[in-house]
Amino acid sequence: MNIGIIGAGYIGSALAVRLTSLGHSVYIANSRGPETLKDVEQKTGATAVTAEEAAQRGSDFIVVTIPLEKIPDLPNNLFEGVAPAVPIIDTSNYYPLLRDGQIPELETGDLTESGWVQQHLGRPVVKVFNNIFAEHLEKNGQPAGTPGRIGLPVASDDTAAKQKVMALVEELGFDAVDGGTMRESWRQQPGGPIYCNDLPANQVKEHLAQLGTERTPEQHAEFLANQNAAEKHMEAQGIKLK
Ligand SMILES: NC(=O)c1ccc[n+]([C@@H]2O[C@H](COP(=O)([O-])OP(=O)(O)OC[C@H]3O[C@@H](n4cnc5c(N)ncnc54)[C@H](OP(=O)(O)O)[C@@H]3O)[C@@H](O)[C@H]2O)c1
């Protein structure tokens, strides 16, 4: 397959390593231009291109994996000419304290983080890979049927795109779990029980069922408070996200 990846950091590189090792052609981009990605090309086997080229050459999948605050910087016409059937994967998470600053639409109300991303991109997205550490994504995939295989939720309003992405998740060595619609994708966001806990599919499904589908204001506040505590803990450890 031909896969375009916009963002060549931790997640973009981890995906590129795995996808090239599975025999796929990967086109990867950052904000500074392909000439700055020689080391990434060497490490991953992907071809460095511009973001526009990654969108055009990713004829099977396009992955957008850049910091949330940078999403509005992407060119308006990035997906012009890209067939509507090509799934656009979004891996975003909201880190208001350490990276993204406060985005009022994400602090209250119904909008989910990837819902905000798809509004900016002007295209439906598929939310996945947001709730696993890059190193685990690169190294902890296992064959189907392995006990304890990690389950990853996949959420989108585009059911055909979601099915294609779920097959890709399986190919990468994880159990794909249907995470519902974009409106329901809050359940896999930071601060919740299935965020970066490497749970097997049955436990992911149990949490999704227990959380329900409609987010209450209390659940929203609880997830944000948990994320704030996690960010403060990271800050105390000297972890920087930008
Ligand atoms: N790190 C993880 O373990 C992890 C896990 C799950 C989800 N996530 C989420 O996935 C997203 C990416 O995270 P990351 O850790 O991989 O980020 P990262 O290591 O900081 O890398 C970000 C990449 O995005 C590129 N970029 C920024 N603005 C761009 C633009 N306008 N056009 C093209 N490329 C642009 C950067 O390129 P330049 O260097 O040239 O600016 C860089 O290659 C974030 O939302 C993050 O929260 C991360």
UniProtKB/TrEMBL annotation:
Q: Which residues form the Pyrroline-5-carboxylate reductase catalytic N-terminal domain?
A: 3-94
According to the record, the segments passing through the membrane are: none
UniProt keyword terms in alphabetical order: Oxidoreductase
What Gene3D superfamilies does UniProt report for this protein, alphabetically? NAD(P)-binding Rossmann-like Domain (3.40.50.720)
Q: Write out the GO MF terms.
A: oxidoreductase activity
Q: Which InterPro entries match?
A: NAD(P)-bd_dom_sf, P5C_Rdtase_cat_N, STEAP_metalloreductase
The protein's name is NAD(P)-binding domain-containing protein
